[in-house]
């Protein structure tokens, strides 16, 4: 088993989850500041006001990355730091731009390759209030294009750009379930606004157009001189049939991935939504104009893959409810024969199943003709980790096994199945603000002591990463040297 010698590995984070300093240096509010202020939305009533204090500790975070041996680091830009009100006619904030430009310079100086996510869910709040944010195609896509151009121009040394992180989450969690900002849902007990049957599909469509516009700008105005690459990051779980003998469950397994991943990836690679989605959603799913197809089709230089878990899938009979977003099926942790998908974690939706990762890498590669893949997130929480005293939390053997198994499954997919993975970023560098779960759920390879000035303590899993990748990459180098030797 081995990985290519140019393989990049490192860690990932997102602005609102780690930065804090929400009122510093001219930053404007984002929809997450607003959402966190609504009582009951965040499990522990917390917010990203302090988070890991990373805005003020960039040097410390880079030193940590270096100590752990990371070759790359994925982070996101807070749009409302660089354009506080967000829009194309609003003033820009030089302090915000300088912050991220300096951060990239410092990463490069430390020998770490930056991957920048432009949008990890924290829309400038003013845009939501002004015109309905992600729901407004004309305004939102024009403002995103403007913001993206400003970033490409301001940070020319960054060679890896991700337009959107997990548009599925923005659309479904933000506009169907209402558990993420801006909290829209049809459930009037939870929100006065929202239409779970329609808004998510509009938001998904608008994100695809905004992605396409940003990619066009990058390719026409910056790529020729900067020479970087750009893509989108999508989330999706692996699937196994609940009843392996039932063709309807087997079919539902594909449909589940289509509703999660192909919703975005099919338009990007083929130019239209999957047939299964059109069939179920009919006119509620927007259609692409010719001009939009031209923007979206072929707009990935790489596929950004976020992956965590797997489910058993049981098909449903009859007409699904209007607010269904899974594809008329159930997701389960046990199959028909009582087999369990994997052990519990602190996250209700996450159970480790490394074979699923390999399966999904293959599924994606076959459907989209073996694109270059960066795994932009992979990781786990640990049941009860927050209740442990520091010394015990640092011995995160469960997470070590997770990373070992998932990285080996990936290496097998590369070597034995011909899947083209070129990088891997563990989620996350730090314990951080886990959105609606607040700070109770920890995903970091580094323990953050929120009670003691956000002091950082690398866990066992942090130190394991370099030897893990060295063993896989070194082996590849030895094999390559062997192969290059003339036959005796
Ligand atoms: C990622 O998303 C985020 O990018 C990151 O910010 C976050 O901290 C990290 O994961 C850990 O949570 O049961 O069908 O409703 C999380 C991925 C995808 C997890 C959707 C929950 C629910 C699927 N999420 N999933 S469903």
From TrEMBL:
Cited SUPFAM superfamilies: (Trans)glycosidases (SSF51445)
Superkingdom of origin organism: Eukaryota
One Pfam family this sequence matches: Glyco_hydro_1
Catalysed reactions, as listed in the record: Hydrolysis of terminal, non-reducing beta-D-glucosyl residues with release of beta-D-glucose
EC number: 3.2.1.21
Class of enzymatic activity (EC top level): hydrolase
Similarity field: Belongs to the glycosyl hydrolase 1 family.
Name by which UniProt lists this protein: beta-glucosidase
Organism lineage string: Eukaryota, Fungi, Dikarya, Ascomycota, Pezizomycotina
